[in-house]
Design goal:
The protein has about 475 residues and is an alpha/beta fold. The protein has a single domain, classed as Alkaline Phosphatase, subunit A (3-Layer(aba) Sandwich). It contains 15 helices and 15 strands. It has a 9-stranded mixed beta sheet, sandwiched between helices. Strands 3-4 form a two-stranded antiparallel sheet. Bound molecules: zinc ion (ZN). The site of zinc ion has 4 residues, from helix 10.
């Protein structure tokens, strides 16, 4: 009851946001349904299936019933900058150039700076599609700062500490940052984006209650810390979702949206969701407070995806992809509820694979639908690997695949036939490379870089 009231309150308070549609002219393919790529960090079948069986992820269930789904092979190491760049390029790290969080001064040398968008050595799908005059909106994708001059909209994920408001220090993912240029393309749309960010920030407490119900009552120092280490990611997701909802679907051929909260709350609260996996589980009260946080976040993602599809008001081809699953980590640790540190209890080293669901116009319908009760995470078929997403997207849109891409097209998933497949040797033309060189030479400002390097070192992400 309480949750229903809160929900309607939030819908009311956000109604003003629905007016400010981000329009960017007309789609290049008005006869083609827009494609929505929902990139969800750490979303996985072991968590999703029990909820699907209880009808608690109705949007995903509907997409699964009408489309194709399965496991998605990931890669090692499971570091977000690397994997999400592979997803966006169809290429492995040696080809795309993003090798982790931090850049070293020569092989084996010390880390001197963080990787940024300009370190990418090959085109991402948003550039390939822009070249073909398709309209794209890319929101919050990893390593997109400084934003690329796409044909449409790009809102970069800026990885910074935002020192002024850094309540938590375990921040790995980024968000929208007030007062920083080059994070939105075209730059004249930056005020609109920042106003969405401000609106989300102002209503964050209300939103958190909507997403997580009562599971925010932190008692111990440890839980307060875990919670403050998660809040910012939830705010980033809420901002990205709001921006995606404001995108006029008549303006975009492809909308790509990244959400990181599933991974962030998974890292922090796995021990509360899966206490039996730990020699030192939380007490009953703490489990009562936080035990539902991970499933609540899955419900939130599902609900928001449903809202997004509904807001677009027309058939949408949806691709839900994740980079890896999650598992219990630090299971032998004795946790100090009043200690200074708040170690993670969920991780993705040797974790289950990622998840993929593809559904909508242009996607094959299931041959023989299998009831949800009969699905087992460990026996779901592999649809392919993270490197296949971009080639498959291009093929679905009738855009040639680069022969230099390592991923493969899921011909058994898309309706288009392999006979129609068009290829080009590469999409990386000389003009694009020259332009990247030039942008690199101009230099970019990485906000609070020293602090960020220090943080990544403290977390063991770089040496
Ligand atoms: Zn993670």
């Amino acid at each position: 009851m309480r949750r229903v009231q809160l929900l309607s309150l939030i819908c009311l308070s956000l109604a003003c946001g629905e007016d400010s549609e981000l329009a960017f002219g007309e789609r290049a393919r008005p006869d083609h349904a827009p494609v929505l790529i929902l990139a969800v960090d750490g979303l996985e079948w072991d968590e999703a299936l029990p909820l699907l069986r209880e009808d608690e992820l109705p949007t995903l269930a509907k997409l699964m019933a009408a489309g194709r789904f399965g496991r998605l092979r990931s890669m090692k190491p499971t570091l977000s900058p690397i994997i999400w760049t592979t997803v966006a390029t169809g290429k492995s790290p040696p080809k795309h150039g993003i090798l982790g969080f931090g850049k070293t001064d020569g092989p084996g040398g010390p880390v001197v700076s963080v990787f940024n968008n300009l370190d990418r050595r090959t085109k991402a799908f948003w550039e390939i599609l822009s070249d073909r005059r398709l309209r794209v909106a890319v929101i919050g994708w990893w390593l997109t700062y400084p934003a690329d001059p796409v044909n449409g909209l790009m809102v970069a994920q800026v990885n910074t500490l935002e020192q002024a408001e850094a309540g938590g220090t375990n921040r790995i993912k980024g968000g929208v940052v007030a007062g920083l240029s080059n994070q939105v393309h075209p730059p004249d749309r930056e005020p609109e984006i920042l106003s969405i960010h401000d609106r989300v920030s102002e209503s964050l407490s209300l939103r958190l209650r909507e997403i997580l119900g009562q599971s925010t009552a932190a008692e111990s120092k440890l839980e307060r810390k875990l919670w403050s280490d998660s809040r910012w990611a939830i705010r980033a997701d809420a901002t990205y979702l709001e921006i995606a909802r404001a995108c006029d679907p008549r303006s975009f051929d492809v909308v790509a949206l990244y959400l990181g909260g599933t991974d962030v709350v998974g890292h922090r609260f796995w021990r509360y969701t899966h206490p039996n996996a730990f020699v030192d589980p939380p007490d009953a009260e703490a489990i009562q407070s936080f035990g539902d946080l991970v499933p609540d976040y899955y419900r939130y993602v599902d609900r928001e995806l449903g809202r997004l599809i509904e807001a677009y008001g027309e058939p949408v081809t949806v691709m839900v992809v994740s980079d890896h699953g999650m598992r219990a980590t630090n299971t032998q640790l004795i946790w100090d509820p009043n200690g200074e540190s708040a170690p993670v209890s969920g991780g993705h080293v040797d974790a289950p694979p990622g998840l993929v669901i593809v559904s909508g116009p242009g996607i094959r319908r299931p041959q023989t639908p299998v009831p949800l009760e009969e699905l087992e995470a460990s026996s779901l078929p592999f649809v392919g690997s993270v490197a296949d997403v971009t080639p498959t997207l291009l093929a679905h849109l009738g855009v040639p695949v680069g022969r230099d891409m390592e991923g493969e097209v899921w011909w058994s998933v898309i309706e288009r036939s392999a006979d129609e497949a068009a290829v080009v040797p590469t999409h990386d033309d000389r003009a694009w490379k020259r332009n990247r060189e030039q942008r690199r030479a101009e230099g970019i400002i990485i906000p609070a870089q020293d602090g960020r390097l220090e943080q990544l070192r403290a977390l063991g992400y770089i040496e």
